[in-house]
Specification:
Elements lengths: L2 H12 L9 E3 L11 E3 L15 H19 L9 E4 L2 E5 L7 H8 L5 H11 L1 E3 L2 E5 L13 E7 L3 E8 L9 E10 L2 E4 L3 H4 L1
Antiparallel strand pairs: 1-2, 3-4, 4-6, 5-6, 7-8, 8-9, 9-10
Helix pairs in contact: 3-4
Length: about 200
């Protein structure tokens, strides 16, 4: 089975993604698993996370989904050859058109993050220049495998939660990292309440 289908099948089986425009779709689960609908989709086409029953099992796919959203925005979206420009002696790149305005970028990030976390991320990691969103032309990141994390609940009530994740690197590349994830319930669904640039 190729990696795209394996990842799609994993997302499908974990019940994380919405059934928007994906190649694989399923009807809502029969039991109350905290998920309404699922699909495997291309980067940039992810629907909102629909986790309403937050557990040690559902927080890991939620964080993996949030990481995918972060990765897509952090690389500038879908543009293969982004338009570059100089600003304050630094090279910037415009984001692809699907993320090209502040509203589009915020809406995309809020698929897995609270408004506060998304607004902080947009304010601190992006530049609005001539009506378009841009970012410093650099690639950063880590190799942590959030989809393989193990979770431990630290605290949870009806509106907020804190989980500790033990996140592995690829085999042989270092010990697991401990990551604290703060979450809040927004309109019935759980969202990460930490800016993606701080979390990842």
């Amino acid at each position: 089975m190729n990696k795209k289908w394996m990842i799609g099948s994993l997302a499908l089986s974990l019940g994380l993604l919405s059934a928007g425009s994906g190649a694989l779709a399923a009807s809502p689960p029969l039991s109350n698993t905290g998920v309404k609908s699922v699909a495997a989709v291309a980067p940039g086409k992810e629907g909102p996370a629909l986790v309403n029953n937050l557990t040690v099992n559902s927080v890991v796919p939620l964080v993996a989904h949030a990481k995918a959203l972060y990765t897509y925005t952090h690389r500038g979206g879908s543009a293969y050859m982004p338009e570059l420009f100089q600003y304050n002696a630094m090279e910037y790149r415009f984001l692809s058109s699907d993320l090209g305005t502040k509203q589009k970028l915020l809406s995309y990030i809020k698929r897995a993050y609270t408004h506060k976390a998304a607004a902080y991320y947009v304010q601190n990691q992006f530049l609005e220049y001539k009506g378009r969103m841009a970012q410093v032309n650099a690639d950063m990141g880590n190799l942590l495998q959030y989809e393989k994390a193990k979770a431990r609940m630290i605290s949870k009530d009806t509106a907020s939660a804190v989980f500790e994740l033990s996140v592995p690197y690829p085999e042989g590349q270092g010990p697991n990292e401990t990551v604290i994830v703060n979450l809040k319930k927004v309109n019935g669904y759980w969202r990460i309440d930490t800016s993606p640039d701080i979390l990842f």
